[in-house]
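Name: Protein max
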Amino acid sequence: MSDNDDIEVESDEEQPRFQSAADKRAHHNALERKRRDHIKDSFHSLRDSVPSLQGEKASRAQILDKATEYIQYMRRKNHTHQQDIDDLKRQNALLEQQVKYWKLRSSAGRDWLCKLWHICRRGCCAVIYNDAMEGYLKMFQKHYKRKVIN
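Structure predicted for Protein max:
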């Protein structure tokens, strides 16, 4: 029986009526023993799942306390790892945008400025501009805005 399975408990009413009181009591005791054994096995499994308790003797209260501490620790750790993943995704997106910028920059003539301007106008560009790049864009906007809009 796995720890996640429910215990199948037979009720006394399902048994034939001709059983003696002693038979009923023995049957009830066996069911109760089975239930207690399942709880005991579940606590042992929980104890062995907590790194600080593996192989140690511990009371049920200690097992529950340590399991609670371990779950809270793992939640904090998962949250920290998720933040790291989110930071790495943002860094990756920024690096991809910088790669696009440098690919456009390496193109000939003003063509790269035109492509960059259209990318930025669509709102999908978050390139970290240096002073020279900002100057190029201002010059480009000044020169081409009249021709594109008017």
